[in-house]
């Protein structure tokens, strides 16, 4: 009989993840599931009616490797009448394996059988998180212990929590002996004040880390010359939580510098040998640098969040007509540094996509001269201050088959390098010619110092700048490595030769193509830019800096009223109460994430028609595709570009 209480229970159960159930076992081993909610079908591909009298169909879904322990677990509960709790795997009808967690309370029946009342929940996501944490911890431990440099982790009072073997080896102590000492016990007295001053600035919140050269006293009394790099992790209140340090032994390097300075002319062979030693040391440093780049890629989201405030408020300040000349100069430096950091993050993400095989290309026939002219125009502002002249000589008839965005990215990098590493008043020449009937070559030549043939094998390696990092030319060390991978993905090659008269000549070979006839141009009057009608906008965001930035941006449009909510549940309440014309939604929210908030907005008749725009620090193309497929009307990644943001507002509110 369909009792109203049963219907209410089923409706309540439908709101819970997993299955509410009653499971019964008789002394003769028979089992049944007299009651189960509809979640059973979704989790086991078994209808509740199929197991009312016989639960064997349910057991068949339990993973063979877990089945025996599964039976033992509830038999133990039968014997002791203690609550049953078990994690196990289930093999779905389509072959997928999922993790479940069951919990139930047993109750003995008059006929000798045992009935459990309980709940089974899916725990795949939790298991994935646990596995990821274990792998991350293992990877960190492997990196820490196998590091080519000394590494330590310390409390804010500089009591050491961990010291790797390399650190102990360099100082001549055992790790246990080092843990009983502090930095000051073996720092050279002349270097201690500088170290303490840097640490005090970090503790005060002025800096988050520092790098310095210093000397340590080994256990045997000898001196160790080192390069010390310190970074900190802060608690929520801004105080120091943990301190990380990396120590590189540069004794040989320093000794070599002194010897080379004194014997440069007379000891050329010794200089060559020492150079080889230094190259080995540099190779080791580059290996450590690659490990750092992998870490930076995983931190993209955290890096974009503060950049959103820096570049966002910076763009607002650029629009301030009352800003003084000195302040505007300071602002230019802030924006330049912020955009440089953003460019570095984007290049790291692009490189990670290429190396993981996730980058999607859209090859098409491209007019090469048109693309080169476009990139040359973008490079002119960089060339003008150094009086570098750009010369293009690309025949109009030449076309290549390539991804337009990625080829443009490669050309921007090559022309930018040709300008940056050129001499003052030099020239950059861009030319192209067919190599074979189906291949052509584009060449970018400069009048710079050129690149020694012996070092060209390192040129296209990530973070390899061939010593340029010690100079004043800004760069990331990623651009050429990324360009090489992009060109190869487009079926081409990239390399470098000597330019006539000196300098470097970078070349790119790509498949040639034939352009379809261009349609005649149609001239239409440009539409007037629409204004924004008065409207209410809701922003669901937990980061105060991000919220403050969007408040300032929206305040530039007098007709718009912005309200906010700090988490998903509050945002849902505000959306129902305010009925906004547009909702801006962060993806990473505490508790309920942006995807769940979107799903609930779409399920509610009062809010399902409101356009929802994702505003997030996730910037991978796969993130954007997932968001659009989930139902977001548009996807904007942080840091916010004001022009893009305003275009979005006009699209939905104009």
UniProtKB/TrEMBL annotation:
Pfam families: HATPase_c, HisKA, PAS_3, Response_reg. Keywords: Coiled coil, Kinase, Phosphoprotein, Transferase. Residues 136-191 form the PAS domain. CDD domains: HATPase_EvgS-ArcB-TorS-like, HisKA, PAS. GO terms for molecular function: phosphorelay sensor kinase activity. Residues 536-653 form the Response regulatory domain. Residues 84-135, 210-262 form the PAC domain. SMART domains: HATPase_c (SM00387), HisKA (SM00388), PAC (SM00086), PAS (SM00091), REC (SM00448). It comes from the Bacteria. Residues 298-514 form the Histidine kinase domain. The keyword Transmembrane does not apply. Residues 250-284 form a coiled coil. Its EC number is 2.7.13.3. The modification 4-aspartylphosphate is found at residue 586. The keyword Lyase does not apply. It catalyses: ATP + protein L-histidine = ADP + protein N-phospho-L-histidine. PANTHER family: TWO-COMPONENT HISTIDINE PROTEIN KINASE. This is histidine kinase. It comes from Rubrivivax albus.
């Amino acid at each position: 009989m369909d009792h109203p209480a049963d219907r209410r229970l089923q409706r309540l159960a439908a709101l819970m993840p997993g299955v509410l159930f009653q499971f019964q076992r008789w002394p003769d081993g028979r089992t049944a599931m007299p009651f189960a909610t509809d979640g059973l079908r979704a989790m086991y591909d078994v209808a509740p009616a199929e197991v009312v009298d016989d639960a064997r169909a349910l057991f068949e879904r339990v993973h063979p490797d877990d089945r025996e322990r599964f039976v033992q677990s509830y038999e133990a509960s039968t014997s002791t009448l203690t609550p049953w709790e078990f994690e196990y795997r289930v093999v779905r009808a389509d072959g997928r394996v999922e993790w479940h967690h069951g919990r139930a309370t047993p109750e003995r029946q008059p006929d000798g059988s045992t009935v459990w009342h309980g709940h089974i929940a899916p725990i795949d996501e939790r298991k994935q998180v646990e596995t990821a944490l274990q792998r991350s911890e293992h990877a960190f431990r492997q990196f820490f212990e196998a590091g080519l440099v000394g590494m330590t982790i310390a409390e804010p009072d500089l009591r050491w929590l961990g010291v790797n073997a390399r650190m102990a080896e360099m100082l001549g102590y055992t790790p246990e002996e080092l843990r009983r000492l502090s930095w000051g016990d073996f720092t050279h007295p002349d270097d201690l004040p500088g170290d303490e001053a840097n640490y005090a600035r970090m503790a005060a919140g002025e800096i988050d880390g520092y790098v310095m050269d210093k000397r340590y006293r080994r256990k045997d009394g000898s001196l160790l010359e080192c390069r010390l790099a310190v970074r900190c992790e802060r608690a929520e209140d801004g105080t120091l939580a943990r301190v990380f340090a990396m120590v590189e032994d540069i004794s040989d390097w320093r000794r070599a510098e002194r010897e080379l300075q004194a014997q440069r002319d007379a000891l050329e062979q010794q200089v060559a040998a020492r150079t080889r030693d230094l190259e080995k040391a540099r190779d080791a440093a580059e290996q450590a640098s690659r490990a750092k780049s992998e870490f930076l890629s995983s931190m993209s989201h955290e890096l974009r969040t503060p950049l959103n405030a820096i570049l966002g408020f910076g763009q607002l300040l650029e629009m301030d007509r009352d800003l003084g000349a000195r302040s505007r100069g300071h602002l230019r430096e802030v924006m330049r540094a912020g955009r440089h950091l953003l460019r570095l993050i984007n290049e790291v993400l692009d490189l990670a996509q290429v190396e993981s095989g996730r980058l999607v290309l859209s090859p098409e026939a491209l007019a090469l001269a048109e693309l080169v002219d476009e990139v040359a125009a973008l490079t002119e502002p960089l060339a003008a201050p150094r009086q570098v002249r750009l010369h293009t000589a690309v025949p109009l008839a030449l076309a290549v088959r390539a991804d337009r965005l990625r080829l443009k990215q490669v050309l921007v990098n090559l022309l930018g390098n040709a300008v940056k590493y050129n001499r003052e008043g030099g020239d950059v020449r861009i030319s192209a010619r067919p190599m074979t009937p189906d291949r052509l070559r584009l060449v970018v030549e400069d009048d710079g110092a050129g690149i020694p043939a012996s070092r060209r094998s390192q040129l296209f390696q990530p973070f390899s700048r061939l010593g340029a990092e010690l100079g004043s030319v800004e760069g990331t060390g990623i651009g050429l490595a990324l360009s090489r991978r992009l060109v190869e993905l487009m079926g081409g090659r990239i390399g470098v030769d000597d330019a006539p008269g000196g300098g470097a000549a970078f070349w790119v070979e790509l498949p040639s193509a034939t352009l379809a006839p261009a349609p005649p141009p149609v001239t239409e009057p440009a539409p007037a830019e629409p204004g924004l009608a008065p409207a209410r906008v809701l922003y669901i965001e937990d980061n105060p800096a991000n919220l403050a930035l969007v408040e300032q941006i929206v305040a530039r449009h007098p007709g718009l009223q912005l309200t906010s909510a700090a988490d998903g549940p509050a945002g849902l309440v505000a959306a129902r109460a305010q009925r906004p014309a547009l909702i801006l939604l962060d993806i990473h929210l505490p508790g309920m994430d942006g995807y769940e908030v979107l799903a609930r907005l779409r399920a509610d008749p009062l809010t399902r028609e409101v356009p929802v725009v994702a505003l997030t620090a996730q910037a991978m193309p796969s993130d954007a595709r997932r968001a659009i497929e989930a139902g977001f009307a548009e996807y904007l990644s942080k840091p916010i570009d004001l022009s893009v943001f305003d275009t979005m507002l006009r699209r939905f509110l104009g």
